[in-house]
# Entry
Amino acid sequence: MPIIRPKIKILDDDHKEMILEEAKSILEVQGVFIENQEALNLFDKNGLIHEGLRYFIPPDLIDKCLKTVPPEITLFDRDGNEHITLKDDNSHFNPGSAAIFILDEDTGEIREALSNDFIRFSKIVEQLEYIAAQSTALVYQDVPKEAQDWHRLYIALSNCYKPVVTGTFRKESFSIMREILLACRLSEDDLAKKPLAIFDACPSPPLKWSDLTTQSLIDAAKSMIPSEFVSMPLAGASAPITLIGSITQHCAECLAGVVIVQLTKPGAPLIWGGSPAVFDMKHGTTPMGAIETMMINLGDIEIGKFLKMPTHAYMGLSDSKIPDSQAGFEAGMGALLAALAGNNMTSGPGMLDFESTQSIEKLIIDNEIIGMVKRFIQGIEDYGAPFASEILNDYGDKEELLSHPSTLKYFRKELFFPSSIIDRMTRDSWKDKGSKSTRKRAKDLSKKLLEKPSVKPIDDKLAKELNKITEKALK
Amino acid sequence: MIILTGEEIFKNIVDSIVNLEEDKAVELANEALKKKINLLEVVEKGFSAGIRKVGELWEDGEFFLPELMRGAQIMQKCLDILIPHLQKGSEEISHGKVVIATIEGDIHSIGKTIVATMLRAYGFEVYDLGADVPAEKIIQEAVEKKADIIGVSALLTTTMTGQKKIIEILREKNLMNKFKVILGGAPVTSAWVEECNAHGSAENAIEAVKLVKSLLNK
Ligand code: B12
# Structure
């Protein structure tokens, strides 16, 4: 056990309470816009007052719904083995989702992706030790538009055993995706007990739940599939410019989501999450690597924890267009802060250019960042006093400590061993090896990773079953 | 009371827009009306010159988006005061008509709204139909409003096809020569513009203004 689990806090309890109270009062007084018929029926059935599509949610209903949210979620891999648990301060990472483009490692161009890119991507995610879950990270153009959301789940599960963070672009897609997930389990019950996928759903800032994403919440809840709120207040554009105002809006949007889901099915699994951003006032963009974006994320995470829910955030991504030093420091800061906040699921690795582009090179570099971050949050271990004096007594014998029993005993535990991504060679050997940049080393490693056999290849029968579902759905 | 000449009023109008002083700008618009100054000149040498200056300041990095948007809105407010007094109403100062919307199935509206606001500020008559609008509806509005330009925003790769659909319908209905169609949104590339046979795209609001101006030779 470490002496302490390193942690960061940016809100005090008084302010968490104030934010929560204000968010509840926003839902009571200003209400939330609901565009989905099933949710409207549900709200009407529960006697909610409304003006048109604006529904007012009383605070006691919110409190009631919060009580039935499970405090933790365990995800299982494709083959049904327990994989990770989202609870306490556990910190897991998955690639940023739904990129429109890929940064081609060979040409250096940002281009539209093809299914083969996503196959390569998924195979690499499988190999990367510190990327705990995969995601439907790339949208590719060689399938019909109607299939662009669900087809990714098929490719993902066919090429990587890790649980998946995914989402729909069309209401019709949910049932196909559910069928794909069910094929990996014995029964509906088995899927509910052993969740394999998380569905992302974005409220529309400010204070609206769209038809599509509300349907996703409801459909997932019915099957006890975890939903992850991706509330994205854009500070200064579709949310207050003040960081605390944006955190409050995020809280209100997520609380409305909690009510939709828990009224649909009490006890349905949920993750308190988001992808907020401050609006860049010069370029009109939504920088995910801005330090203030990270601050809003940290506030959101703290509120989620205050409510005892599993948490999620989009951090560890960059707005740079290539894996350069901006990409490195934005991803590095984001990943470290997310882990220090004890965020349970952090989406972002690989992502560039305002969530629009995925990069295999960056993903591989980010894996290394996360390795270091994981080491950091393990903290400093107390192996028992005296801490140094006895060891130092022995120094005189050999005038080195490399061969000392304590070094041998602890060096593998105390040190994180980076891969070839991190350069710690002498300058001469670095030159001998071709004077390569981090990016070049990542590119080289990507080729090697792709040649490796799958960690857990998909079972033939399941592969056939997934093919069958896909062929049928494509017809 | 100080009597202002036309030139002085124009300068004050420019300053009021650049300094984002809404009350002052409105007062000056009313004063111009009272004094029966040539309104076309008031618009061109006053308000339009002001917003152009704001645009330049933004391009130079002196101004930020909130200032650009606020300037555009003050300008709009003043135009709303002046237009009823123009002989032919808005037609007289309009540089062209634009119908703009985010395509069906897509609710990403912020970029489209910024573009609409800027176009308005630069003297175009803009009909913003909002988000999640079917292609047929966009075309119907464009026909009704006798638009020069149809602007279509799409942020999802799945909804981009709607942009192409607009052009296909226009072709079918033999309406292609009536409008220029411009596209925007994160997934839109020049290859896509070409594939759709659209007339152009722009990656931010000021570029969109330049595009529309060049398409209409303004
Ligand atoms: C903010 C945002 C949202 C907000 C939108 C709020 C709103 N009211 O607009 C919300 C939360 C609602 C949202 C929802 C979803 N989103 Co979204 N969203 C974004 C994000 C982060 C930024 C978009 C934005 O506002 N940018 C700022 C504005 C100012 O820029 P802009 O829109 O590009 O506009 C500029 C230019 O493009 C141009 N322009 C724009 N329109 C036009 C029109 C014309 C005519 C011209 C000339 C120029 C022009 O000028 C503008 C001004 O500078 C993008 C990422 C990205 N990089 O774009 C994802 C993104 C577009 N979203 C994405 C997804 C997946 C979704 C959801 C499907 C997620 C879900 N399952 O819940 C839903 C979609 C719901 C739906 N049916 O539409 C994906 C798209 C993936 C894909 N392959 O298509 C992206 C890329 C993020 C990601 N990787 O996941 N999203």
In short: Chain A touches chain B through 24 residues (CB under 8 Å). The two ends of chain A are 55 Å apart (CA to CA). Residues 243-264 of chain A form the longest helix (22 residues).
